[in-house]
Amino acid sequence: QVQLAESGGGWVQPGGSLRLSCAASGSLFRVYVMGWYRQAPGKQRELVASITSGGSTNYADSVKGRFTISRDNAKNTVYLQMNSLEPDDTAVYYCNARKTINLTEYHYWGQGTQVTVSS
Questions:
Q1: What's the first-to-final CA gap in the chain, in angstroms?
Q2: Are 113 and 89 in contact (CB under 8 A)?
Q3: Which residues pair with 29 in a beta bridge?
Q4: Given a cut of 90, is residue 74 above it in pLDDT?
Q5: Residue among 86, 108, 97 at smallest CA distance from 50
Q6: 29 burial level (CB within 10 Å; 0-12, 13-18, 19+)
Q7: Backbone region of residue 26 per phi and psi (left: phi > 0; alpha: psi in -120 to 50; beta: other values)
Q8: Local structure of residue 62 (DSSP, 8 states)
Q9: Per residue in 2-29, pLDDT tens?
Q10: What was the pLDDT predicted at 32?
Q11: Which pLDDT value is given to residue 105?
């Protein structure tokens, strides 16, 4: 199994910044992609950003230009730098790790960290 430990959430005013961290441990074989999802009250969980072992990134349209995902493969840690935060960014953010075996994806999730953007 894969264990994911998130940190860095909190409260910030609109326009502020936060950096989330996610450290992965356990059986990391074939974990090629890690990313961040978020879920706001009354909404479905959505992909925010993802990054492959090779460094390729993908972002939701709503966060492009404001968020940056990165990873330290040696530390098995992924980061999400969030700038110019908006109230609509308020959500529980979940770290995600994916194993791809025989064209099937297996997802592992962290406990989530709350991000609140308000005055």
A1: 40
A2: no
A3: none
A4: no
A5: 97
A6: exposed
A7: left
A8: G
A9: 999 999 999 999 999 999 999 999 988 8
A10: 86
A11: 87
Helix (H, G, I), strand (E, B) or coil at 67: strand
Whole-angstrom CA distances from 29 to 2, 32, 36, 59, 108 are 9, 8, 19, 24, 13
Torsion sign over Cα 19, 20, 25, 27: negative
Tokens of residue 33, six digits: 């992609």
Sequence letter at residue 74: A
Tokens of 18: 């936060």
Copy the structure tokens of residue 4.
Answer: 């994911």
Q: How far apart are CA 26 and CA 38, in angstroms?
A: 23
Going 62 to 56 to 11 to 93, the CA torsion angle's sign is positive
CB 81 within 8 A of CB 68: yes
